[in-house]
Amino acid sequence: MGKYIMRSLLPFLYLFSVCTKGAGASDLTMPFMEYLDQNHMVCLKWGFDDVQGEITFKLVVNTTGWVGFGFSTNGGMKGSDIVIGGLGPSGHYFKDYYAIRNSMPLVDEQQSYSLLSMTETEDQTIMTFQRSIKSCDDQDFHITNQPIKLIYAYGLTDDIAYHQSRRGTKEVNLLNFTPRKIVTNPNYLSASVQNISVPSSHTYYHCKVMKFPALSTKRHVYRIEPVIENIDIVHHMLLYRCPSYVTEPYDSQCYMGNIGDSCFGIVAVWGVGGGPFEVPENVGIPFGGDDNDRFYRLEVHYNNPNNESGRTDSSGLRLYYADQLRQYDVGIMATGVLQFGDLDYNIPPKAPQFRTYGVCNTTMFSKVLVNGDLFAVLMHTHLAGRKVRVGHYRNGKQIDFLGLDENYNFELQQSYNLGNIKTIKPGDEIAVECTYSTTSRSKVTKMGLATTDEMCLAFMLYYPAIDISTCISHPDTTHPFIDAIIFLYHIIFSFSQNKYSVNENGIIREMMKTPTVTCMNINASSRLCTSWIVNPAGIMLFLLWIAIM
Ligand SMILES: *[C@@H]1O[C@H](CO)[C@@H](O)[C@H](O)[C@H]1NC(C)=O
Ligand SMILES: *[C@@H]1O[C@H](CO)[C@@H](O)[C@H](O)[C@H]1NC(C)=O
Ligand SMILES: *[C@@H]1O[C@H](CO)[C@@H](O)[C@H](O)[C@H]1NC(C)=O
Ligand SMILES: *[C@@H]1O[C@H](CO)[C@@H](O)[C@H](O)[C@H]1NC(C)=O
Ligand SMILES: *[C@@H]1O[C@H](CO)[C@@H](O)[C@H](O)[C@H]1NC(C)=O
């Protein structure tokens, strides 16, 4: 009923901010957008693929003359890396330039940008082009995950000449983008601890299980912002959604056996050094309405290496919600390895690289599925985790990675915004691989909730949401101490109905070697020099029944 009303009102409820009719918000390869000038004449959309090492731009400028875009170390033209193009009387033109002074830039010997399309409407020029994130050309700028000064200029005609005042600069973090907050409606939910005493020990986890104030109608949270009181000791924060059997609040040390410890559906993550997190413009994380009674657990990790005493803290997260509902609900689905139950699956001590796998097989979803558009992934292990990789498989073959962290650090957990939107089709499989190091441990490490136990999870943020919160599996416990796991017990859990379905067969397919993206020059004829070598350690399939719970 609620859903029906929402759907019928949709055309009136959601708003897109688009630079042009041509550059719609449905552009899956370029989810990010920023105007480079105050007057909104120059709009940049972009997206990137970490795995393949490419970044794609769409520059939309309200002119029918030439358009220029570039990267600059100081915001000026001198020393900058520039592309200039347009559509003139004799067709399109497009070149990679570099500027050694504030004058007409010089054409690069190596053309490292490739033009994907050049179109012109009555009053706009739309130039779509691509380059590798890292370039081998000294005349090109190296794109990093730091804020970068972007420059633009354009002309009124197709004669590339002095731009006069039609130029500007804007600093944007292309690879780690959070749009600036536009406070049209500063409504937020607050999840924070209140004046808690931080004990004089090195590490302390404080948990607060709580309900948010009642929201009679559903709201869409679109931005999650940290509010840190003591930046020197607050190390990371996680907000988890609780299962419906958690009905009591608590506010004390985590993992002391409280039932609220089983709230592990991550909704938000902040790690030291991180900033706010924002979801795409057409989606929101649903809160309130029918789900009003839901409890949430805020976990704050304090790092107090000097064992200072007498410190108090009131840090937390602000969850900004939009005035109006957005088009789609964000779904958050946990994939990876099941960590509950009496399954006796242990990581051996003294193992330098122990790998474990969990699989989500969407063919086992009972409902007819639509495509899920994935935009962010949170990868989660505990202290022994060293590496997490999430593979995407279709028709039995790996087609991509949905997440890659070759240097996983529990102390630096971050939401991982993909540079583009990856579509999960019905029937696709997702495999999560976690690599642990237990060289410093003398006892086995079990899968569980305590930070000294382990987890292997990837939380997928996608839309439109379906009612499945968990799609995880468990390896064969009859072979607990082998590197390659050969069996899966598959469990799919539906959140709202607390129903689960179990399937006892499954396989672990080969996961590719992580591609090594080095610097490269791309042009229209040769685009990729990524190596996709398949990991030969192929792993077989098996089936077996394991009784759980
Ligand atoms: C730019 O062009 C678009 C499409 O014609 C138009 O909607 C928009 O108002 C223009 N922007 C400005 C600042 O002139
Ligand atoms: C593009 O790559 C091809 C093949 O590597 C090369 O022959 C060609 O010269 C390159 N073109 C430019 C403009 O760099
Ligand atoms: C916070 O707690 C400390 C002791 O734990 C107390 O002295 C202080 O008054 C409290 N502050 C507030 C604002 O409640
Ligand atoms: C802090 O306390 C722990 C034991 O709780 C101790 O091992 C460590 O050396 C202490 N650190 C400092 C800086 O005093
Ligand atoms: C997913 O399920 C299908 C249908 O049951 C099966 O053929 C396939 O092997 C399963 N994939 C994995 C990775 O277990």
UniProtKB/TrEMBL annotation:
Its cofactor is Cu(2+). One of its GO terms (cellular component) is extracellular space. Residues 1-25 form the signal peptide. GO terms for molecular function: copper ion binding; dopamine beta-monooxygenase activity. One of its GO terms (biological process) is octopamine biosynthetic process. SMART domains: DoH (SM00664). The keyword RNA-binding does not apply. This is Monooxygenase, DBH-like 1, like. Its main location: membrane. Residues 40-155 form the DOMON domain. It is found in: Membrane. It comes from Dicentrarchus labrax. InterPro entries: Cu2_ascorb_mOase-like_C, Cu2_ascorb_mOase_N, Cu2_ascorb_mOase_N_sf, Cu2_monoox_C, DBH-like, DOH_DOMON, DOMON_domain, PHM/PNGase_F_dom_sf. Keywords: Copper, Disulfide bond, Glycoprotein, Membrane, Monooxygenase, Oxidoreductase, Signal. Belongs to the copper type II ascorbate-dependent monooxygenase family. It is a single-pass type I membrane protein.
